[in-house]
Each structure stands twice: as C-alpha cells, then as structure tokens.
Amino acid sequence: MVKLTEQNREEYAQSILHAIDESHIQQFRQLFFELHPQDQVDVYLSMNKPQRKNIYEFLSPDEFAEIFEELELDDQKKFIQELDEHYAQDVISHMSTDDAADFLAEIQEAKAFAIIDGLEAEDAKDIKELLSYEDETAGSIMTKDFVNLHASSTIRDVIKLLRHEGPDAETIYYLYVVNEKEELVGVVSLRDLITSEPDALVEEVMSTRVVSVKVNEDQEDVASLFKKYDFLAVPVVTEHKKLVGIITVDDILDVMEEEASEDLDEFAASRGATDLTITPFTAAKKRAPWIILLMFFGMISANIIAQFEATLEAVVLLAGFIPLIMGSAGNAGTQSLAVAVRSLALGNLEKKGLGKMIFREFSTGVLLGLTCAAVLLIIIPFIHESYLLAFIVGVSIFLSLSVATVIGTIVPLIINKLKLDPAIASGPFITTVNDIVGLMIYFTVATALLAYL
After folding, report:
1. In DSSP terms, which residues pair with 150 in a beta bridge?
2. What confidence score (pLDDT) does residue 1 get?
3. Is pTM, for the whole model, over 0.70?
4. What domains sit in the chain, N to C, each tagged with a CATH number?
5. What pLDDT is stored for residue 165 in this prediction?
6. What pairing do the DSSP bridges indicate for beta strands 243-248 and 233-237?
7. Residue ranges in the chain modelled with pLDDT below 50
8. Crossing angle for the helix pair 427-448 and 322-346, to the nearest 10 degrees
C-alpha cells in the first residue's frame, strides 16, 4: 500500500486521473488500490464530474462504499445525487450500519426510506433501529456489525465463526458473550481465544467483569468511559442487559471532536457559526442573539459609568483606567471559566472537590491581583505623579481580579447543576459580567477616596 508524500502526491494522482480519462480500467484499479484509504478519498475529491462518473463504473458498490463512508456528510449528500438508484442502494448496504444510519438521518426522509426499503431485511431492520434512538446517545452512535458469542460454545467453534463473520464485523479484538436470553454475561479477547485449547468452552476463558453502557446514555459520558479505561470498544445494552450493539474507539474520536467543537462554539458565544461552509447570513443569524444580549449588558456598564459621573468630573484621569480594570477582570474571569469547564468535562471536579477548586481559583485571583497592584503602584506614580491614584487603581485591580476568578469558576458550576452544558457560560458572557463587577468596584473605591484626590 502506498502512502503519498507531498512530493509525489500530485504526480501519482495525475497518473490515476489519466487512467480514468483514457478508460484504462486495470491500470486505474492497480494504481488506486495501492493507495492508503484516506489518499483514495483525496484523489476521489480531486476528480471532476465526468471522472467521477467513470469511477462508479470502475468500482463495485462494495469498493466504493469504503470511500463513500469516509467522506464528510456534505460531500456524501452531494455525490449521492450522481449515483444510479440501484448502485446507491448497494453502496449503502455495504457500509457499516452506524455510518449508513448517520448518513440516512441527514437526507430527505422520503429518499432515506426509499433507500432503506431497497436493502436486505436484516440491514434495513438494523438501520431503522439505529435511527430510532435519540441523537447524541450511545444507541445513536453504536454499530450493529459485531460478533457475539455464547458461553457454551467451544473455542474451535468460535474460531470458525470468526473466519466467517469477522470480515464484516466492526472489530473482533474484543468479543462479547451472551446467554440464551441474549443478555451480556462476559467478554473475551482475541488473544484469549488464540492461546486457549480448541476444546475449551468460552465460559472458561471469558471475564465476567464487563463494563457496558446503556442505549440512552449520553455520548459524552461514553467518551469519558473510553478515556478512563482506554477501551477499543464497549458493549451497549438495554435496561434488561440485552446486548444490542457496540461502540468502537473511532466513533468515540468523532464524538470527542464534535463535543469539543460544540464547547468551543459555546465558549465563543457562536454556537453553530464556526463552520466555514455556512453563509455569512447564516453565521450572522446564529451569532446575533448573543451579540444583542451582550450589547444590553454593555448598556449596564454605561449606566454604571453614568451613575458615577460626578466622580469622573472631579478626577477626569480616572476614565483612563476604565479599560484596564474592565479588561483585566474579564480576562481573569475567562481563564477561570476555562479551568472550570475543562474540569467538568474531564471529571476532575469529583476528584479534587468543589471547595478546593473554588479556593484554588480565588487564591490565584488574589495572587494575580497583588502582582498587578504592585506593578501599578510603581508605574502610575512615575507617569501621573499621584500615589493616591495608584492606590485606588491598585486596590481596584486587586479586588476585581479576586472576585472575577470566583465568578468565572462558580457560574459554569451553577449551570452544570441545572443540567445544562456549562460551556454556555461563554467567554463573552463572563467577560461582560466581570466588566460590570470591575467597574462597580473601581468607582466605589474611587468615590470613597475622592476627597483625598
């Protein structure tokens, strides 16, 4: 198998495209199947429409299915339009059931059911089952392409079974054992099977300590389970412990990427707007609610400044330090927000304790505040020749940073307790809240010491 480098990628791809244009089927197949699967996808995406039309003739549905299921969803929806109806059905039938279900869930319902109706009864049943589960649950991301064993089978029988069913299974490194009621009772590794005597029974070599997930469990919790135990796969069971599917590590990597993207979107107050494929209008529509909400919060800041107009009129120089106070408090709060959200996502909060994390962030804020205050007590008198002004700004920055870190920590924890995604305590939201708090502290301290300025 050839894995293309940057140096020979273009040249090799051109050879493949030339073979397509000249209808040299054997040459094309020889070159194409020497490639790494991901490079095959890249070459396919580089083709024009006539070349893609040829490739549908050069590749069987089974062969093209391996390419199709590696495409991004938008590309799948685009290229499925180019396929003959029967060819498309054959492609779907050769895909993994979970990948097929993910694709069919995103296209028009009428077209999806037309494709499903053309599949073999067993494939159609499996895909319909996967489509019936709620989004972002274990059931919705599991696959039905797995091999299960019976405890009473011999190792010899299992090896024969794997030779027959193994090529179509998602993974065979770990095999799950069921009883006569199809309930999960154990797990056995491929290593255990190979090293055991042929006449030994599965129940003699299996482990009964099986970690499983229920079909309605949140996919993020499943991802945490994979991370904790370093699983390659995990079985999915019903409330009655009936084995209905497995989740493999490649699907969990997709989940982790999806969840990370969602958290980033929430953190930036731009959920659904970070996708570069959407139009500017759609991006603006998705971002507008947060921007408008934060604009109203900004008006609160303006009203606070207006309330302390007399203080500003007395010492105009105070206005020059407003951006410093607001920016520092907002930045400190956002940093603590990131720590809290990350701890919740990784489950570290349960290990370290709520009180310890809040105290740790508060202590961090105090130390940051003292450091910034010390710097300002040196710089401001040098520039503005006023030790009292330096004291006001220094005390304000100290109190603002101390409070901002606590706010940045507590807000996502409260949201998490309300069973909401803590990432919605976005950076812009926390920044705006801490701007308001910082202004209140600054003008309160300045007003209290105004007589001495």
Report:
1. 178
2. 55
3. no
4. 6-134 (1.25.60.10), 148-248 (3.10.580.10), 280-452 (1.10.357.20)
5. 83
6. antiparallel
7. 273
8. 140
